[in-house]
Amino acid sequence: MPNSKNQASTSSKGCLDKPEQSLEIQNVKSVVLGEQMLRESVIANQSKSMGYTFEAKANQKLTYTTNQNVCIWVFTPDNQLLNTGVLPTTGKYTIQISAPQGSTTVDLSMGLDVAQATPASTPNSSAVTSAPSPESTPNSAPPANTTATRTSPSNFPKASCGDPLPTNPNDYPVDFYPVYLPDSEANLQLARSRFCQDALSKRRKDSRTRAVQVAAFTSKQRAIKFRDILNSETSGSSIGPPTRFQNKP
């Protein structure tokens, strides 16, 4: 079996963006996930991956949390990377766990369609989700990865999101980075009910296609952060090119 070590880069947490080891069938436990978070403990180390498999339906949302500094990859049945929290297909999913160094006991909580959940693990906390190489996936449970969903923060929905226009004329010109969802009535209603009540459907300046503008920010970093929050609840959120205001309206 080819080794993917030379093909993968390493994150700041010491995790490869592709699993180095195959996930052996004897190290995989089948679990049933539901709306209540299931807590499991497993000993993970650098040389041997451990894993869990679970059945899920298309459009369900996976949430997982851990406080340990470990590497986590989540794979879908059809071996495709998922860049939102919504599971794309019905079938068996696989969670693969290893330690960036040494050995550690991992307490992992997992759930599907959890109503109120702790935000999922990210590279800033303790876990990394990343894309596997085909040769590193187990033959018994072929996986591909996805990312765990993160519930929207408790301060949403808001009457209005994004940044207001500056009141000081000296702050101009100013750029606003719009954050969009694909245009649909469902996305418009979701944006208004879950995030920003002033979301509206409008024509994008760059593509001239209609989209749901949820908010706009003077900082691209804040726009990226908000886009990621949207993608934890739905899919397809994107940032448009900035609109420059030369003078105070």
Description:
This protein is 9% helix and 29% strand. The protein is mainly β and 249 residues long. Strand 10 (200-203) and strand 11 (210-217) form a beta hairpin. The radius of gyration is 20 Å and the shape is elongated. It starts with 27 loop residues before the first strand and ends with a strand.
> Strand sequence of the main sheet, in spatial order?
1-3-6-5-8
Topology, number of strands: 13
Order of helices and strands: EEEEEEEEEHEEHEE
Residues in helix, %: under 10%
User: How many alpha or pi helices?
Assistant: 2
Low-confidence stretches: 1-12, 117-153
What best-fitting shape do the alpha-carbon axes yield?
elongated
The chain-level mean pLDDT equals 76
Q: Structural class, please? A: mainly beta
Beta-strand percent range: 25-35%
> What is the first-to-last residue Cα distance?
64 Å
Q: Report Rg.
A: 20 Å
Question: Major sheet, described briefly?
Answer: 5 strands, mixed
Essential attributes:
single chain, 249 residues, mainly beta, 5-stranded mixed β-sheet, 5-stranded antiparallel β-sheet, disordered N terminus
